[in-house]
Amino acid sequence: MFKPTTIKDIAKALNLSTSTVSRALRGGYEISEETKKIVLEYAEKVNFKRNPIALSLKERRSYSIGVIVCEVANQFFSQAIDGIESVAYSKGYHVIISQTHDSYEREVINVEHLANRSVDGLLVSLSAETKDYSHLEKLHDQGLPIVFFDRILNSMNTHKVSSNNFKGAFEATEFLISKGCKRIAHLANASQLSITAERQKGYEEALRQHHIPIDKELIKYCKHGGRDQIEVEIAVREFLSHDNPPDAIFVASDRLSTGCLSTMKKYATHHHDILVAGFSNSELVELLNPSLSYIRQPAFEMGEKAAEMLISIIESKYPIEEFESIMLDTTLHPNGV
Amino acid sequence: MFKPTTIKDIAKALNLSTSTVSRALRGGYEISEETKKIVLEYAEKVNFKRNPIALSLKERRSYSIGVIVCEVANQFFSQAIDGIESVAYSKGYHVIISQTHDSYEREVINVEHLANRSVDGLLVSLSAETKDYSHLEKLHDQGLPIVFFDRILNSMNTHKVSSNNFKGAFEATEFLISKGCKRIAHLANASQLSITAERQKGYEEALRQHHIPIDKELIKYCKHGGRDQIEVEIAVREFLSHDNPPDAIFVASDRLSTGCLSTMKKYATHHHDILVAGFSNSELVELLNPSLSYIRQPAFEMGEKAAEMLISIIESKYPIEEFESIMLDTTLHPNGV
DNA sequence: ATCGATGCCGGCATCGATTGCGCATTTTTT
DNA sequence: AAAAAATGCGCAATCGATGCCGGCATCGAT
């Protein structure tokens, strides 16, 4: 069937040994200019490409990095992936993308799959459901380079890239307060995620500084990250049907933001009275109705940084001792009213 | 660094040969139950996983399939990828995703990259810029299985999956006519794409059947598929500033649809007088303002079908002679007015 | 008792590319 | 002119897993 030319074919055709061909093809300090020219020309002619799989076996590495995200349909992640790819390609690495759909089982399967010597390192943003991290810790202990981005595992000693979630949440909440809102609800992601805790702290701190009491009934978590629309819908409808309903909602993530708006449009007759601000990297935000004030994360840059860090670990000669945590700033985009 | 246990390590530890261990690990009809048990237990204990790279080298295949799309941020493609993955995983294949960003150069690089014996087959949706298909034809001639979906290359003799673009376009245009529109513009994708031609035919046929003259000035192509927002903006602004401007726009693809709406919101003071209908698989469509009537493609199913077809070619013992072209129906979702 | 049949397992080559070592020549040095 | 150095290239091992072939023992049959 599909059978590309190998170094052996060239050797046979040119009546040389495979070693000579191999050396002629790369550097080749020990090969005469003449032979080198013959080999290179012939290789070009038969469109020779070295077999990366054979190389991986020999070199015990694959020049590819694995990316674990909840889903590529999420614009934050697709932008981050663009950043990852731009760095990876420029350094000669493949990128293999794997989606967890915020499921713990899928995360375990995908991580094991990728780790098994087919990637040189892993870029991970945790699934919303994940509470047990042993699948990652085991691999990391065995020496597989791992860098976290966005949804971080604080307890693991490695590089991490995140955005300033506390500040982003704080600014968004303060913006809602500045618009006169007094009862601000918080629609949050799964409680075990790093981003959830950080964003909730920012939200609470803003309320505190403006002397607005924190009402636990106005904070709801989506433990599957809004994997099913219904999960978001239930939470938002509880807000809406509250005896003393909120006059604003601060939403902690992309998927939840749009889910929240859909629900409001569907069920709230008076939805223009409720301001919504949330994290979103969607390019369609400005076209939404009800409108959404949004906090944007520098997804592309986060991807770039994470990929650079991972590749630096992979290519480091010695075990890394000192690990970095990078935090990038978000931007607030007010909208509506 | 990262060094997983190999079959050799097990052999040494158990004082057996590698062949025995190998056979004990899989079926092993020639190995005594006793040795088999010892090997399996030890393998389990040291968490042995066979090295897929070594296997790929030996078997001359990788159990992975490559997917070439313009970008994963596009919901149509991310949904198609979900379909592809669901089939691929269930049959034991990896999925490697590669983005062209509608650039011809990137397509060539990515295709070559994947083809080089690291994938067993390719699932391709052409880039908007691509006019020369030799990079794909060469590989196909060499025997690499290729299946097209969505953006098809008609001249290549292989399986193809598309949606009924003609019918979808026809219905959307007819819908606009039924709403009383008389001057319906068409914002199209790159002219060499299969979907562009099919959708344009549907549009023109609807006009013809309703005795509306076809005005070539009301048809504009985006030859980079709307890779840059500015490309769409220029086209739409030309529509808007026309002496006799359109009262509706039929848009041929997802990215163009949203780009069109943005531009209208930005520049058209009277944008509510212009109806817009277009292809879109975005989950946010219902929340858009200006509103959009949309044609939805069965992206997930298209991905499933394409993956099934590709895997059937890969696993077929004999060269396939008869190729299929599958066409799935779209659905129209009217909105606004 | 000898031969054949089986059961169980090890040796070796293989997939494609790389590389240390070593063997020829040729060129340079003394 | 003889010794030393340099040049150009081939042999064989290696990476991990597999599978053909062949060896050795045990058993039953003739």
Write the layout of secondary structure elements.
Two copies of one chain form a homodimer.
Chain A: H1 7-14, H2 18-25, H3 33-45, H4 52-59, E1 64-69, H5 75-90, E2 94-99, H6 104-115, E3 121-124, H7 134-142, E4 146-149, E5 160-163, H8 165-178, E6 184-188, H9 194-209, E7 219-221, H10 229-240, E8 248-251, H11 254-267, E9 275-279, E10 293-296, H12 299-315, E11 325-328, E12 331-333
Parallel strand pairs in A: 1-2, 1-3, 3-4, 4-5, 5-11, 6-7, 6-8, 8-9, 9-10
Antiparallel strand pairs in A: 10-12
Helix pairs in contact in A: 1-2, 5-12, 8-9, 10-11
Chain A binds a DNA duplex (30 and 30 nucleotides) through residues 6-8, 16-23, 25-26, 30-32, 35, 50-51, 53-60, 117.
What is shown here, in short?
By secondary structure, chain A is an alpha/beta fold. Chain A is built from twelve helices and twelve strands.
Mean pLDDT rating of chain A: 93
Question: Care to count the β-strands of chain A?
Answer: 12
Individual helix count of chain A: 12
Choose one word for the global shape of chain A: elongated
- The proportion of strand residues of chain A reads 15-25%
Gyration radius over CA of chain A: 25 Å
- State the helicity of chain A in percent bands: 40-55%
CATH architecture assignment of the largest domain in chain A:
3-Layer(aba) Sandwich
CATH class of the largest domain in chain A: Alpha Beta
Distance between the termini of chain A: 64 Å
> Biggest sheet of chain A: strands side by side, in what order?
2-1-3-4-5-11
Summarize the biggest pleated sheet of chain A. Answer: 6 strands, parallel
Helix and strand element order of chain A: HHHHEHEHEHEEHEHEHEHEEHEE
Q: What structural class do the secondary elements of chain A suggest?
A: alpha/beta
Largest chain-chain contact?
A-B, 47 and 48 residues
Oligomer: homodimer
Under CATH, the homologous superfamily of the largest domain in chain A reads Response regulator
Return residue spans of chain A where pLDDT drops below 50 for at least 5 consecutive residues: none
> What number of structural domains do the residues of chain A give?
3
